[in-house]
Specification:
Helix content is about 55%, strand content about 10%. This is Glutamyl-tRNA reductase.
């Protein structure tokens, strides 16, 4: 089997399909390299944003869509299930997805951090601008539990589209002519427009009513626009707090460095999971031998039970027939348990692949199973050669 991967799509082709049929932007990975890559993708290590969480959901969707599709057999199914497990384990044990690594997400986290008096559901939020950055801010706010907000934009179309996409949120549109009136009723204001002139200057902000003068709360301006939408002098006002892109970039860079450190921990986990999956995959090669051995034992068991029952006559009670059947089945299962265990390579035992191969040869020779061994033999030779190259 050959496994082809590109950044967003996983395509499985089996032997006989020419590689030239694949899109030039895809790349080809075999065996353990393919497993390693998929596990890294599921863990978010191969994403544009390190630790990206959405990619794991996409991997799960691949498994869902692949059910019943020709070629999506047991090995591929097990591969993706283990990849999902690996992705979850990496996120749980390393917490690699924590910390904002984009300006928009950092802006939302900073706002919630600087306004401890409010919960995400009670803070009065204003977003100025419904372009790409504004939309991202709104998404992050909704993800943090802020379901109610006002959006000021030059046109209503973009706001309507965002409202349709985020149906759970209560998004109110206001035109630019009502900007200051909306700001007067807001605790935190995100600005993300392409305006070349500041939208909030010191004089206009100073004229706004205080957020809560008794508790000393400040109206918070999170300016992620370039050029700035909030005049720097606004920060001089006692009732206003101003943060801009430069402030947020420091947080983002620190979080990126933290994720890079966590990536090393994640790579250790992935190495463990790849090793376990490779052992599981190798164990599947013994399935034909296991089936033939069990079928061989079942033929003997069934024939001997029939012979026994025929000697005992036709007037045997049904419960005694069942007892004889259960006895024969129990004896066979107990006798097969040892040989079956020595054919498994699932990581539970410290048996090498060569030991499994020797056991298969022995059982084939003893019971005359005529099991095809070439596939596993080639795998053993390839692994031995690879180990010899690494050691040299």
């Amino acid at each position: 089997m050959q496994t082809y991967f590109d950044t967003n799509i996983f395509v499985w082709q089996f032997s006989g399909v020419p590689v030239t049929e694949l899109c030039q932007h895809r790349f080809l990975l075999y065996n353990q390299d393919a497993t390693q890559h998929l596990f890294e993708v599921a863990a978010g290590l191969d994403s544009l944003v390190l630790g990206e969480g959405q990619i794991l959901a996409q991997v799960k969707q691949v498994v869902k869509n692949g059910q019943g599709v020709p070629g999506f057999g047991r090995k591929i199914s097990e591969l993706f299930k283990r990849a999902i497990t690996t992705g979850k384990r990496v996120r749980t044990e390393t917490n690699i997805s924590s910390g904002s690594v984009s300006v928009s997400s950092a802006a939302v986290e900073l706002a919630l951090l600087k306004l401890p008096e409010y919960s995400s559901s009670t803070a009065r939020v204003l977003i100025v601008g419904a372009g790409k950055m504004g939309k991202l801010v709104i998404r992050h706010l909704v993800a943090k539990g802020c379901k109610k907000m006002v959006v000021v934009n030059r046109t209503a179309d973009r706001v309507a589209a965002i409202r349709e996409e985020l149906m759970d949120a209560d998004i109110v549109y206001k035109p630019f002519s009502e900007l200051l009136a909306c700001a007067a009723q807001s605790d935190v204001i995100f600005t993300c427009t392409a305006s070349k002139a500041p939208l909030f200057i010191k004089e206009s902000v100073q004229a706004l009513p205080s957020v809560n003068s008794e508790d000393g709360c400040r109206r918070l301006f999170i300016d992620i626009s370039v050029p700035r939408n909030v005049e720097p002098s606004v920060a001089e006002l006692e009732g206003a707090g101003v943060y801009n892109v430069d402030d947020l970039k420091e947080v983002v860079e620190a979080n990126k460095e933290d994720r890079l450190r966590k990536k090393m921990e994640a790579e250790t986990i992935i190495a463990e999971e790849v090793k376990q999956f490779e052992a599981l995959k190798d164990s599947l090669e013994t399935v034909p031998t296991i089936k033939k051995l069990r079928a061989y034992a079942e033929r003997i068991r069934s024939a001997e039970v029939d012979k026994c029952l025929s000697k005992m006559g036709d007037d045997i009670p049904q419960n005694k027939k069942k007892a004889i059947y259960d006895l024969s089945l129990g004896i066979v299962n107990k006798l097969l348990h040892g040989p079956m265990q020595h054919l498994k390579c699932d990581g539970a035992e410290n048996r090498t692949l060569s030991e499994i191969l020797e056991n298969m040869h022995a059982l084939n020779r003893i019971f005359g199973l005529d099991t095809e061994m070439s596939v596993l033999e080639e795998k053993v030779r390839a692994k031995i050669e690879q180990n010899q190259k690494q050691s040299s």
